[in-house]
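Please describe our next protein:
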Amino acid sequence: MKYNHQPVLLNECIDYLNIKKDGIYIDGTLGRGGHSSAIHEKLNNKGKLISIDRDKKAIKEVRKNFKNKKNIKMIHDNFINIPKILDELDIKEVDGMLFDLGFSSPQIDNPKRGFSYQKEGPLDMRMNLDQNLSAKDIINKYSKEELEEILINYGEENWAARIAEFIVEERKKKAIETTTELVEIIKAAIPKAVRRKGGHPARRTFQALRIETNNELKQLEEMIKKVVFNLKPGGRICIISFHSLEDRIVKNSFKYLNKKCICPPDFPICACDKKREVNIITKSPIRATEKEVEENRRARSAKLRVAERVKN
C-alpha cells in the first residue's frame, strides 16, 4: 500500500529549527520520513541527520528514499535512548531535535497493527513489534482496577469503571483478541444515549490502551528532561503533540526547564542550585493553518511547542 504522506506542521518545524547547513540534527520520530527529508534538504555534506524510530518497518521503508546518502543515519531504537545513541556515535551535542508524537498512516491504517477501532485486527498496538507487551495482554491480564486507572488517566474516559467491569466479565467467557470484540464490549458498557454524542465510543479507550502499551507519556517526560542536555547552546527542540495529555507534559517540562529556582517561595535565599536550561520560544502552541487542516485532517489536533537551549 502506498501513502501520500503529509508531514504535519512541516514549514513551521523547519523555520523554528533554524537549520545550519553543517549542523547535526535529530528526528526522534522518523515515521514516514517527511520531516527527515525536509531537514536533510537543508544540510550540506558536512551536516548530519540522525533519524530514530521504534518501528523497524518504518525505517526499512524510508531508507529506500535515502540511498547513497552518507550524512543520514537511521536507527531502530526508542527516543528515550538518545543520550546513549549519541554517545555510541561519539557525538556530544546536536544543533536541533524534532519529535512528531503522532502515528503514521501505515500504523493506523494497517488492521494488523491493531491501532484502529474502525477496522478489525488483532489487539496489538505495539509501535515496536519486538517488545512483549501488547494491548491484548493489557485487556486480558490487567485487573479491573488497573484497567479503570489507565482509562481514566490516559483516556480521560467518563465510563472507565463500567468499561473495565464489562471487559473483566467478557474475558471470563473467552480471551478478548480483536479490535472489533473490544469495540462491541465498549458499546455495550456505554449507554446508547451517550454513544450518540462525542464521536466514536471506543476512541478514548483505544487511546488509553495505546499509551499504556507503548509507555508513551512516562517516556515522553523522561525523554525531554534527558535530551535537552544534548543540545548545543542555541540549539532547539521542537515537539508536535496530538492530544491534551501529551501537550501538557511538553508544556510543563519546558516550564520546569525554564525555571532558575524551584525553592519554596518562603525561602530567604535559593538553596536548590537549579539552573535555567531552556528559553521557551513558543509561549502558546503553534497550530496548523485552516489550509493544512483541509488537506490533512490529522493536522487538526496538532500542537507544536519549541524551546531553545541556553548557555550555562
